[in-house]
Amino acid sequence: MPAYLFQIELPVFTMEMMTIVPEHRLHINKLFAEGKMLSYSLSINRDMIWCVINAEEEQEAMEQVIAFPLYTHFVDVTCTQLMFHNTLPASLPGIFLN
């Protein structure tokens, strides 16, 4: 399945935006649980978001971003289809034989 990298520019963080953050985080966590979101990063000064989304087509990926609760506050959104997206695999705990 293709992956799409989104770079999202945010305005100066406001109290209004802060009230939306819990709903936004729940939405992002849901996308992770469904396997639709591969990564999500926020810059330290809260002005940029980068995320990688699994989708069959760019339109489908964009629809997922439009559904973000903070979407109405986004200043700019750019989308790039990725050839591949590698991440460090989650390691399983070691097995101890007693």
Written account of the structure:
This protein is α+β, with helices and mostly antiparallel strands and 98 residues long. It has a single domain (3-82), classed as Dimeric alpha+beta barrel (Alpha-Beta Plaits, 2-Layer Sandwich). Helix content is 29%, strand content 28%. It is built from two helices and four strands. The chain has helices spanning 15-33, 58-66; strands at 3-9, 37-42, 48-54, 76-82. Strands 2-3-1-4 form a four-stranded antiparallel beta sheet. The chain is globular, with a radius of gyration of 16 Å. The mean pLDDT is 92.
What is the topology?
Layout: E1 3-9, H1 15-33, E2 37-42, E3 48-54, H2 58-66, E4 76-82
Antiparallel strand pairs: 1-3, 1-4, 2-3
Low-confidence runs (pLDDT<50, min 5 residues)? none
**Helix fraction by DSSP (H/I, runs of at least 4):** 25-40%
H/E element order: EHEEHE
Proportion of residues in β-strands = 25-35%
CATH topology: Alpha-Beta Plaits
Structural class: alpha+beta
What's the CATH H-level superfamily name? Dimeric alpha+beta barrel
Overall average pLDDT: 92
Give the spatial strand order of the biggest sheet.
2-3-1-4
Give the biggest sheet.
4 strands, antiparallel
Which CATH-level-2 architecture?
A: 2-Layer Sandwich
Number of helices: 2
- Calculate Rg over CA atoms: 16 Å
CATH class: Alpha Beta
N- to C-terminal separation?
A: 42 Å
Count of distinct structural domains? 1
Query: Total strand count, please?
Result: 4
Shape: globular
